[in-house]
């Protein structure tokens, strides 16, 4: 099952920089592991924003929720999920 996911990161301005850097490093390792597993198949930066547009390929909505809610940056993110169906004109 494919899902379009948009994530916007909002870390409070008064959050300690060292803690934020540690969370970002953990996020990067987690994201790269999911990409190597083939679950996080696209990861694009939205130009000019601390946001990304991603495509996930997972077995179920429950799996997607588990993956997303395990993101180290999850407490600092607004996330929008859109389920994707095959377009009839796609080849
Ligand atoms: O930077 C982001 O968009 C947030 C998050 C998503 C992947 C990652 O490494 O960090």
From TrEMBL:
One Pfam family of this protein, by short name? MIase
* Name of this chain's protein: Muconolactone Delta-isomerase
User: Assembly and interactions?
Assistant: Homodecamer.
EC number of this enzyme: 5.3.3.4
**One annotated GO molecular function:** muconolactone delta-isomerase activity
Say which enzyme class the record assigns.
isomerase
- What reactions does this protein catalyze? (S)-muconolactone = (4,5-dihydro-5-oxofuran-2-yl)-acetate
Q: Which domain of life is it from?
A: Bacteria
What pathway does the annotation place this protein in?
Aromatic compound metabolism; beta-ketoadipate pathway; 5-oxo-4,5-dihydro-2-furylacetate from catechol: step 3/3
């Amino acid at each position: 099952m494919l899902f379009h996911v948009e994530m916007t990161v909002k870390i409070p301005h008064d959050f300690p920089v060292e803690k934020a850097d540690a969370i970002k490093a953990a996020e990067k390792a987690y994201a790269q592991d999911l990409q190597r597993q083939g679950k996080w198949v696209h990861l694009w930066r939205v130009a000019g924003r601390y946001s990304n547009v991603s495509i996930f390929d997972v077995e179920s909505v429950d799996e997607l929720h588990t993956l997303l809610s395990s993101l180290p940056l999850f407490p600092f993110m607004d996330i929008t999920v859109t389920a994707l169906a095959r377009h009839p004109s796609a080849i």
